[in-house]
Design goal:
It is a single chain. Strand 1 (about 50-55), helix 3 (about 65-75) and strand 2 (about 80-85) form a beta-alpha-beta unit. The protein has a three-stranded parallel beta sheet with strand order 1-2-3, sandwiched between helices. The chain is mainly alpha-helical and about 180 residues long. The chain has helices spanning about 15-20, 40, 65-75, 95-115, 125-135, 140-145, 145-160, 160-175; strands at about 50-55, 80-85, 120-125. The relative contact order is 0.12. It has eight helices and three strands, in the order H-H-E-H-E-H-E-H-H-H-H. The protein is globular and about 50 Å long. The longest helix has 19 residues, at about 95-115. About 45% of the residues lie in helices and about 10% in strands.
């Protein structure tokens, strides 16, 4: 018996300034989906110009994350960025802002160490709070969510470096 999913990919158009500047995003299934269709995710990684490796703030780098990182990302992709999502789970009313920032920074530094990245290539955000902030027009929540840090990184580093990233990928394949 062979199971074939009803669809393998969807094309979604979203009016965002970064997309208008030429950023193309391919969102692949998470590691939990690798058991059913590993080729979909793993075949795309070596062809990517950059990889945003999405992790959860509360768990950090798990064994399966590290496995995929070492086998498929670390050696094959020139531009690698780890994104720790769900920082809102760290927002505890019983802790001071300094304690929360220290805990977040500790997780970011540990993630950078484990993945062999510079600390600048590991960012923290809350995608959910960023969306809520955009819907409500809440500038303070938007800043706290960290989503603007990711957008800035994409706008100021990834998009301008597209040709350089592509050249490195071609050189790596030919070499």
């Amino acid at each position: 018996k062979v199971e074939i999913p009803c669809w393998r990919h969807a094309l979604i158009n979203y009016p965002h300034p970064l997309l208008k500047k030429g950023l193309v995003i391919l969102a692949t299934p998470g590691l939990n989906a690798l058991g059913t269709e590993p080729e979909l995710t793993l075949s795309m990684i070596p062809n990517a110009h950059a990889v945003l490796f999405l992790l959860a703030m509360d768990t950090g780098v798990t064994k399966s994350d590290l496995d995929v990182w070492q086998k498929y990302v670390q050696s094959y992709v020139t531009r690698r960025i780890a994104v720790l999502n769900k920082i809102d789970l760290m927002w505890d009313e019983l802790k001071s802002d300094e304690q929360i920032e220290t805990a977040i920074e500790r997780q970011l530094s540990e993630t950078a160490r484990i993945l062999g990245l510079s600390r600048e290539c590991v960012i923290a955000l809350s995608a959910q709070k960023g969306l809520i902030a955009r819907i409500r027009g809440d500038a303070n929540l938007l800043k706290k969510s960290g989503i603007e840090v990711l957008e800035s990184l994409l706008a100021n580093e990834i998009i301008p470096a597209k040709q350089q990233i592509l050249r490195a990928a071609v050189a790596r394949e030919i070499g």
